[in-house]
Amino acid sequence: MRTTRVLTAGGPVHLAHTLAPLRRGPADPCHQIDGDGAHWRGSRMPAGPVTYRLTQTAPHIVTADAWGPGAAEFLDRLDSMFCLDENVDDFVPIHPTIAAAHQRHPGLRMLRTGRVFEALVPAILEQKVTIVSSHAAWRTLVHRFGDPAPGPAPEGMRVPPDAATWARIPSWSYHRANVGPQRWQTIVRAARVADSLERTAGLPPAEAARKLRTLPGIGEWTAAETAQRAFGDADALSVGDFHLASVVGWTLLGRDIDDTEMVEFLEPVRPHRYRTIRLLEISGQARKPRFGPRAPITDHSRR
Question: Which CDD domains match (predicted)?
């Protein structure tokens, strides 16, 4: 049975820009965009699986349709998911490119799904590998071990596995998905304490990220990537990203910089460092010169 809610915000909400971080590649089995621009997603709420469909019906209006045991719970959290309570009055862009993007895209919102483990697993899969490889691993594992999305979802759409299933996936299945031992062991450790991880969603973002980092295999980058999606943390800077510092440097300073210099450069916009990165990404001006061939994809499945 379908349940519907119309969300009317006090200001604009740009649906596509806001939801973009949730999609793990164009073939993500948990997140699809149909020909009408509607975003379909399969997720797991505490009450159970849910398929939801989000459409933009006006600059400040989002219509949500949901199916499955978790539908009512998802719709109740919709305001929180789109961070309608956030305050950007103290955000002062530090560069004309960011200022222009902030002016052109007032509908960019942070995301607060509250689904911590669901955001953590794909972040772990993305550790120290190419995005192509991590997205392929996510597709392979979700297709095999996830569940069909409830309701009239697009063909092939899935709900990601629950924590117990992630913990039971045999090592050879991770291996065939090209996931090395360090990453799959981190996923299994996280799955075994998934309930306590979910409770971090109720903490201040900085404290929640600190608790995530106490789990072996979860560092600053992985915690930030999770916080950006689950906690609505506008300051969660992905320090340690292979490309990010260079993109920030070349786009905003005209030269290459490292993580240390990026952190120093972005310090004046705290607590909006991640918001600054998202505005840079959607500005259409983000760039990084190529000085050599692309990094090779390490194939763990052949080892």
Answer: ENDO3c (cd00056)
CATH number belonging to the domain at 3-99, selected among 3.30.70, 3.30.1340, 3.30.310, 3.30.9 = 3.30.310
pLDDT at 97 over 60: yes
Question: Each residue of 52-69: pLDDT tens digit?
Answer: 999 998 999 999 999 999
DSSP, collapsed to helix, strand or coil, labels residue 58 as strand
Strand ranges (DSSP E) for 68-157?
147-148
Question: For 169-188, what is each residue's pLDDT tens digit?
Answer: 999 999 999 999 999 999 99
Model confidence, pTM: 0.94
Answer CATH for 116-225 from 1.10.340.30, 3.40.50.720, 3.40.50.300, 1.10.560.10: 1.10.340.30
Preceding omega of 268 cis (within 30 degrees of 0): no
Instruction: For residues 178 and 26, give the distance between their C-alpha atoms in angstroms, rounded to a whole number.
Output: 19
**φ and ψ of 174, to 5 deg:** -60, -45
Going by their DSSP bridges, the two strands 48-58 and 61-67 should be labelled as antiparallel
CA distances from 154 to 53, 67, 126, 150, 158 (A): 10, 13, 26, 10, 9
